[in-house]
Design brief:
Largest sheet: none
Radius of gyration: 15 Å
Helix content: 55-70%
Number of strands: 0
Distance between the termini: 37 Å
Length: about 100
Amino acid sequence: MSIDDKTRTELEAAVFRRLVNHLRDRADVQNIDLMNLAGFCRNCLSNWMKEEADAKGIAVSKDESREAVYGMPYEEWKAKYQGSATPEQLAAMKKAQPGHS
């Protein structure tokens, strides 16, 4: 792909927004399932956003980055959509992501 850096950044930002909107629309997909299948989840995206903000000296709190990804405060999302993980899901996550909690 032969495009300039500005255009590439704009495309990447648009793709990120589409991914976040897709995950918001699919609240039925649990974070643990995302972790087990893809190795990342909504929390990972919000953590990556905060890490990038920190690296650039931009003040973004963990709560703010999570709200940017979830579209609402994290605790509200958890109360509305997050179910309890099954023993099978937890075992799969421990095997696939041993250092992730």
